[in-house]
Specification:
The complex is a heterodimer. By secondary structure, chain A is mostly helical. In chain A, 70% of the residues lie in helices and 0% in strands. By secondary structure, chain B is mostly helical. Helix content of chain B is 66%, strand content 0%. Chain B has 4 helices and no strands. Classes of the chains: A mainly alpha, B mainly alpha. Chain A binds chain B through residues 16, 19-20, 23-24, 27-28, 31-32, 35, 37, 40-41, 44-46, 48-49, 52-53, 99-103, 105-106, 111, 114-115, 118, 129-130, 133-136, 158, 161-162, 164-165, 168, 173, 175, and chain B through 1, 5-6, 8-10, 12-27, 29-30, 32-33, 36-37, 40, 42.
Chain lengths: 175, 73
């Protein structure tokens, strides 16, 4: 029996083999969305837990990677929604210091304003903005991960940019 | 909004969030997945709770349906 079919039947060894194969890809994808390595670790674990829980619903004829990415995107979206609801107005959000080093040419105050405005966007707009504008992923790839059409992704990017521009202008940042 | 304005936003975001690149998990996450599988109880879907509630209400209001239900089970 093939690995994917064994997984569908709930075989833990097959699941571990798939985990080993896709752990890095899933972690990287989640990190691109949440931009916080600690949260990305927890969400990778959560994603694979969700994957195992849904093993019976997976169709071995389809791509496991694409399915895993879709579940990872949903887990990351849930996280962003939770964080957005919890996050109080603070000068330096927690994830600011945990991601890759930002561009030093940009003034600290401006960076904080941009970050604050970005984190005020609805979670589903944050996801498309990060993936499309920062990570430069194709609309098709983002659409597959979110389970929507490329046209809907384009619309969300447009709305994200428009909202971001408005809040940045209100915050006094030239955009 | 034109392409030039989009590009400004894109540059601003790039400056704040540098692309992640090829990220690798800092540790093996398999033990954590196994722990999570052991710890997390199987959640009952909300629809199952609704169905159970409807059945309980039905049995309470019309107890005579209980033998009929058992007959068809």
């Amino acid at each position: 029996m093939e690995l994917l079919e064994q997984f569908v039947h709930g075989n833990l060894d097959a699941f571990e083999a798939l985990f080993r194969q896709f752990q890095r890809e899933v972690y990287g994808w989640i990190l691109r969305i949440v931009r916080d390595p600690a949260a990305a670790e927890d969400l990778t674990v959560e994603t694979f837990w969700r994957i195992y829980r849904s093993h019976g619903r997976f169709d071995p004829a389809h791509s496991f990677g694409a399915w895993a990415r879709r579940i990872a995107t949903n887990a990351a979206l849930d996280h962003l929604r939770k964080v957005r609801n919890l996050r109080a107005e603070v000068a330096l959000p927690a994830d600011f210091s945990q991601g890759p080093p930002p561009n030093p040419a940009l003034q600290r105050e401006t960076r904080e304003q941009v970050l604050r405005c970005f984190r005020q966007l609805p979670a589903k707009l944050q996801v498309v903005a990060t993936l499309a504008l920062v990570e430069e992923r194709s609309y098709e790839e983002i659409a597959t991960a979110l389970g929507i059409t490329p046209g809907a992704v384009k619309l969300r990017v447009f709305r994200a940019v428009r909202q971001l521009r408005k809040s940045l202008t209100r915050a006094g940042v030239q955009a | 909004m034109n392409a030039l304005e989009d590009e400004k936003i894109r540059k601003l975001l790039h400056a704040v969030f540098p692309p992640v690149g090829d990220a690798v998990p800092p540790r093996d996450l398999w033990p954590a997945v196994l722990r999570h599988l052991d710890e997390a109880p199987a959640r009952v879907p909300w629809l199952d709770w609704v169905c159970a509630g409807v059945l309980a209400a039905l049995f309470a209001l019309f107890p005579e349906v209980i033998p009929a239900l058992f007959y068809y089970l």
